[in-house]
Amino acid sequence: MTREVSRPADNCPGNNIPEDDILAALWEQVPFPRLPADAPCEIKDLVIDVENPKRVYAIHHAFRRHDLQLLVEKFITQLRYGCGFSSCTTPSCFSCRKRLVGKAPIRRYNPTSARTLAVFLASQDDADSRLCPHLHPPTGPSDAVKPLIFGPRYTSRSNDATNPTYAGPGARTKPTKGSAGRVAPKGGQAKIAGNLSPTRTSRRRNSQDRSKHPEGGLTKNETSSPAGSPHGIRITEKSISKDYRSFAANVFGTVAFKMLEWLTPNNMEAMSEKVAAIGDSPNDAEGSRAIPSQSGDQSGRTSPTSTPSLPKSDNQVAIRDAPEAQRNSTTGHSPRSEATGFYQRAHPEHQSASTPNFQALPPPQRRNSSARIRTSSVSKPQAKVAPEPLIESIADETGPKSPSIHAPQPEKVSKGLVRPASTIARAPSPVMENEEGKHPEPMSPPSHGDEQFPQMDGAGGEETSSSAGTIRSLDTPDESQDTPVSSDKAELASELDIYLPQSLSRLNIQAINFICDILQEDATSERHLLEPPTISGSDRRSSSRLKSWKRKRKSQASYPQDLKLQWKLFAEQSIFHVLSDPQALLDSFTGSNGIIDSQTLWYCMLRLTRVAPSLVFDSLWIALAGLFAPPKALQSMRSPTSKMFPEPKKSFTNAEAASIMSVCFHALIAAAPLVTDPRRLNDMSRIRAHGLSLAGGGAVARQPISLCLQYEDAFTDDMALRLARRLLRVIPTRRHFDELIELDLDSEDGVKESDVIGILLSHLESPTQSALNFSKAERSMHEKRLPILLLDWARAVMLHEWEGKPEVSGDGPFGGALSLIAAMYQKRQSLLLGDVHFRAEYFGERLDPIQMPVSWLSFTSTKQKVHLLDYPYIFSPTSLVSYFRAINFSRMSRSYEESNSLEARIKAIIAHDSLVTETHQKNVLQDLLKVPSAKYLILDISRKNVLRDAFDQLWRRQERELLRPLKVHLGEDSGEEGFDSGGVQQEFFRLAIAEALNPDYGAFTIDERTRMTWFQPGSVQPEWKFELIGLLISLAIYNGLTLPITFPKALYRKILGEPVTELHHVADGWPDLANGLTNLLEWNEKDGSVEDVFVLTYEFSTSMLGQPVSREMDLSRRTSWPQFSSHPNSDPVSASNPSDAPLVTGDNRNAYVSDYIRYLTDVSIAPQFAAFARGFRTCLHPKSLQLLTPSLLQNIVEGTQEIDVAELRRAARYVGWDASHRTVRDFWSIVKRYDDRMRRKLLEFVTASDRVPVGGMANIQFVVQKNGEEEGEGGHLPTAYTCYGTLLLPEYRDKDVLRERLAMALENAQGFGFA
Q1: What is the pTM of this model?
Q2: Rounded to whole angstroms, how far apart are CA atoms 445 and 451?
Q3: Spatial separation of the C-alpha atoms in residues 10 and 32, rounded to whole Å
Q4: Which secondary structure element, helix H or strand E, spans residue 464, and what is its range?
Q5: Nearest to 615 by CA among 528, 542, 556, 549
Q6: Residue 113: its pLDDT value, please?
Q7: pLDDT of the residue at 280
Q8: Cis peptide before 532 (omega within 30 of 0)
Q9: Residues of the chain falling short of pLDDT 50
Q10: What does the alpha-carbon distance between residue 298 and residue 284 come to, in Å, rounded to a whole number?
């Protein structure tokens, strides 16, 4: 059950028990963890007393179980019966289902199916939101208990003496006259019956009776009953017809399955009332054969759970049999410790055979425990631990209890903690003393109800009175009493302090190693599926500066079982107490310099998750609840947002929240299998990114099945996933708090806190020295493991939460995972991550590649809803290119359909039978609508003036024209007959771009080494030409064509709006410059000063049409680069070159490098690039460019220049022959020996482009078709259909002829016959 907020109390049976009453009852029942006597002295300084019942792990576990049962009951009612509201909209409510089906028949869930679904719904995050708001909680027992018949069990004395029988689940025995009793807490302790096992308690009671009276007789204090008297409660079930051949009837009709419905909170209360009614009524409704036994009076009434039922009045006191402790004559520790009772509950066969009775404490001396039960999580530190008392060996199995009841004991019984009556055995005080061997008569209950039942303070959750007497505590004296507290009471209260639950106040490396070693040595650790199962040997680490802790063991004999159980209880309590408290987490894992180093923290979590993973994950999940409390600035009374948070809660700063989140993330990372090979770690991350449990081959790397299953066990663990979901939900919550603080104008704190993710990632990327002894290889592996597994957990939550739609929640776990991935992507270099680590191919493989990106264009992301394409780096490059082209194709299709529709309307207007009859008007109307109704963008280009014709026909074109499909008529004026199906377009753009980028025109420059093109600073060409060149490139991209150009990656970064500030941003375009600037930055001035060795001035210099032009770089003023003037009398631009620019020194060299890159890529070419970018974005949707990275955009524009013949051969297809034909084998043998130039010519000859498109050879259509046979040395040359990527290859006589004819065709290929 994972809820963020608590549910309101329900006024229905089983649900209206005050929380404080439940805590008080559990405080008396659960075993108390105590530090065992053989603990090392060093650990005692960390031990504290736990005074808050909610901070005791056993109470917390039982309370949550009880709460879950109540929630399951509500869901069962909702599923089976509904709310009764005619307009219900809750999908799981029966009333909503009934409304949706209308008059059609509908079948209810059976009890088993309803319970299965209810358990699933109750175990989800924020389960309360799934409850129907109109639901009425169940007001009575379910139908499952209706067939049960309750009645007294009649047995004769002779049968009792010879054949003692089991009395049934509701059996009750009359308490002895001198036996100790317990008063039921006020508010109805019986109503927590759903938390206890009735059959186990009943069996314990009856087996205990049989062990005390083997002959079946009565005790000396019991009175004889006549033959045939009632001897307990008999529960039977009405006989029903059942098909014994049916498997379902035999399985679901068993008592084991039926008990799932019987033993629910509501049913237990109803059964308890029936049992009580049988005891109260002298004549049973079913017809009793004899007078009921005296055990049915108001002093001995019990429910089938052996827990007292709710008293009908304040004067009624429910007393049950008190447990009896076995006497121990030794003065040292008993072989059984405080945990023995808890152990005996699971193993009742280890009980003692006989136990003496204790005397009941008189009501006037019951203890006020208000000082013992507190809801505050702050525990009182304990500098020294008092010496351990003598522990009595006991017979009952209810475990060590709260010291709330004190009973006088015979003098032979030594002092110690007695279970299960929650009493401390000690010599009776003079007030309580009676004659030895005599039992005091039961005293009449007090007249005041407040003194009779324990009361819990509603605000503080503190118990104000115990259930057996009125013993005042020294910490909280009773103000209603005028007399001072007696010395006996003071002594008694001080002795009670020794028996409070104990825990460690914080954890350190020594304590974690010590606790985990004990649980592993004693074999008491939790069973789990994580790998490795234990941490020992070479995997164990310790600090060389600190001494390891060891238990005090004087003998080599086997360690006692009871001490193992004591250590288990204490270890679990310590882990829960520290990890579930946010402040204790900060105290344990942070210091003066912040949180401890990442590798040490990971090791601590690795050890804890291998001994108690469920406890660790659940405790951390509880601790994260504190991070949802708003900061103090929002809780201030002066803040307008204070009304949103009416209850002030303890808040944490973003730095503290990041530290707590870091602990939780390290726990999740530690849960993953311990992989020490980086390659295997990356492969497993890729497998998980595809949503696979096992690698099935193909593009995903194969890994051992055992490792894949270990990953599956770790990343599908329910407790770990629950922790991960809440952890990621913290991220958007904290960011919302930051936004509210920014909007709060009255905020006193003017300093803005850092983002919580930024603080978290700074801890992960900071390489601090580890406090433990790790090798260099281990530290390097940890730096790689941490971010990769962090991304794996984020993806695991995304896959778990995804509903199959591209629109996802932005303020839930999914949104938090996306925010974390986005922040890590920004810091991927410092985290040693590549682009491939962020991909989650699972989503791209399951989303519509056409409809999804098109719908994204009109989607507006909010804080509540975001789109997956807002985070394009989680998709593969192939998917992104597919989405980008789908958007372009969608716009092209829409433009084509609009033109086609308009053309049909025009034809209807100019038809002979139309309303427009005048021919002139028809012609005018047709001329006016000629452009809007054109289906294609048609360009008529001559080979002599390719660029001029293109500029003339593209100038002032409307956007709707440019978005239509492109058709090019190239060279038709000279007789070419090309039919444009793609090849003519490719040829046109190749010729046009080659002419536009020619350096002779003065618009661009080409680097002699890299052959990369860049803008000419201060170009003489007008800006509109740069805009048209950008439009040409945009038109080619829009129509899915690659271009034979090479721009540096800095251009694509600027187009996408990314900064160009680093040396690696310009290294591909200007490698010599990048090397020189790198040497400048890395120069050691011990070998000479920078100004003497490099002799550089603080200015940017370039050549403009043969003239050297330089300008001093100054950040203080915005400078523009000089442009050539068309005025004949203007001064040359070189006249303004600075003559006294300052030198570059060791102090300003970093600024010099940054300024030089800025002038090179921005200032010097600003007007030219601005015009080029306008044209480039003309045909492309601005949002579609957000899908691309600079590298991906470069591949889309330029393709790939490297041609792999082996890949081309694998992608090739054949028509007229197959790959084994001699000519085909000769062809590939010749092509394999071609150099890069000839390979590009071949690819251009067949596909009209010498570049490989993005996606590789798989996206190329390369067909080798047989084109007849050539016997002689001459014959036809090879030809090609460039539009269809088909090479028409004749079958030549031999290989030499093929080589000659193919080379001739490639060297002289120009023009089109049929393209």
Answers
A1: 0.76
A2: 9
A3: 31
A4: none
A5: 528
A6: 87
A7: 67
A8: yes
A9: 1-14, 158-227, 282-487, 493, 1312-1315
A10: 17
